[in-house]
Amino acid sequence: MAVQRGVFEEVLKDSYGAYYNIIEPELSRKTSPEELPLAFRADYFSRAEKYWLSKSIPIWGNEKNEFAYIFSAPEFSKELAERCVSFALDDGLPRVKPHKEHQYTNIQVVLLADKLSDEVISAVRKRCFSKSYKFSLHGYSTLLLAAVDVGTGKTYTNKAGRDLVKYFKKLFALRAD
Fold first, then answer.
1. Neighbour-count burial for 86-124, b at 16+ CB within 10 Å, e otherwise
2. Has this prediction a pTM greater than 0.85?
3. If DSSP codes are grouped into helix, strand and coil, which group holds residue 87?
4. How far is the C-alpha of 63 from the C-alpha of 45, rounded, in Å?
């Protein structure tokens, strides 16, 4: 089930491009350090509203956002993986604009590698982050972390990112050699 990392990166970019705004690293070079292997960032914004009789009488509103950071390298060390996650949190959290109709804004980090060491897999599974705004009355933010071994086709996630396993399994099924 091995797939070339570059090919899988393009498949992932196309998949995210259906619902997310893709930001190339060249466009965000001011915020992205040169030594981090950032492939692209994808931003998702969703707003739902319900009205009574007309738009001037809103009943409720709801916002769900996500900032996905895709890093791609032949191999990740534990330190490099932690720097990538720290960069994503430092860059993504200031973009969160909590208010009374904000439900959540997730920070998603995906590490694509040809091979993953046991040390990195363990670090990914243990890493967690969550933040609530005004005791969750103005929403919350959660870290969804996934490490994808494109050589074996396996995905490893933290507890919050469990749903990403199904997503990557479908992408591997589409691109299996």
1. ebbbebbeeebebeeebebbbbbbbbbbbebeeebbebb
2. yes
3. helix
4. 8
Q: Using pLDDT thresholds of 50, 70 and 90, give the confidence band for residue 46.
A: very high
Picking from 68, 92, 94, 87, the residue whose alpha carbon sits closest to that of residue 146 is 68
Residue located via tokens 């929403």: 139
What's the rounded mean pLDDT across residues 127-136? 94
Map residue 28 onto helix, strand or coil. coil
Q: Are 161 and 145 spatial neighbours (Cβ–Cβ below 8 Å)? A: yes
Tokens matching residue 11: 């498949």
Neighbour-count burial of 133, counting CB atoms closer than 10 A to its CB (0-12 exposed, 13-18 middle, 19+ buried): middle
Question: CA 87 to CA 114: how far, in whole Å?
Answer: 22
CA 126 vs CA 10, 93, 132, 155, 170: distances in Å: 28, 20, 20, 15, 25
Q: In 3D, which of 137, 140, 94, 143 has the Cα closest to residue 123? A: 143
**Residue 146 near residue 168, CB atoms below 8 Å:** yes
At which residue do the structure tokens 């981090």 appear?
36
| Residues linked to residue 46 through DSSP beta bridges, in sequence order | 64
